[in-house]
Design brief:
The chain has 8 helices and no strands. The chain is an all-alpha fold.
Length: 196
């Protein structure tokens, strides 16, 4: 906790901090501290990545083109992404900034993304590769040690998503011993491809 910040002051910053704290306890104290600009930039990028994931999974479920087993995983992934968003948004909020919310960004997808179960799981694997790379890049680049464990837990879950959707798309559930991290520029460029 930052020097001079009481527990009551921290809790007074809003109920959203409590939600993030229950999901990833390490974020509560760290989010209340001033973050270096590079760490805040990565946190904002991760907020955008989670909003894209939420939008994609919501649209994929609504397309109703997947079998029940795949739809079940789409729904579980959506629930995970919502929890991830809540946690990473608290990093931004705790640093005194306002995180993007659904509706702030208009997302676009390649033609045919939601046309079939196969196209949905292929895109999910591509998306999860990018999001996992963004989290790995953040863990490598951020200087606020208190955030690293929580971000690593999210990255582990994103890797689970990637493994499932890669296998469901006809590929291998896993291949790399060391998945590729993305720098903030590479992650931002990859995610920009899906904004209008």
């Amino acid at each position: 906790m930052a020097a001079g910040l009481t527990r009551e002051q921290l809790l007074g910053r809003g109920a959203a901090l409590l939600v993030a704290g229950s999901a990833l306890g390490a974020f509560v104290e760290t989010a209340a501290a001033a973050l270096p600009s590079g760490d805040l930039a990565f946190a904002r990028l991760l907020v955008g990545a989670e909003l894209l994931a939420e939008d994609f999974y919501t649209t994929a479920i609504a397309a109703a083109n997947a079998k029940p087993a795949v739809t079940s995983y789409l729904k579980r992934a959506l629930a995970n992404e919502k929890e991830h968003y809540t946690s990473v948004a608290q990093i931004v909020t705790g640093a005194g900034a306002t995180p993007a919310v659904a509706g702030d960004i208009e997302f676009t997808y390649p033609a045919g993304t939601f046309a079939s179960a196969r196209s949905i799981v292929r895109f999910a694997a591509q998306l999860e590769t990018t999001i996992l790379g963004a989290y790995l890049g953040a863990i490598d680049a951020i200087t606020t040690d208190g955030l690293k464990a929580g971000l690593a837990r999210i990255a582990a879950n994103e890797a689970q998503h990637l493994g499932y959707f890669s296998a469901a798309a006809g590929g291998k559930a896993f291949t790399l011993s060391f998945p590729q991290e993305l720098t903030i520029d590479r992650a931002s460029n990859a995610l920009d491809a899906f904004t209008a």
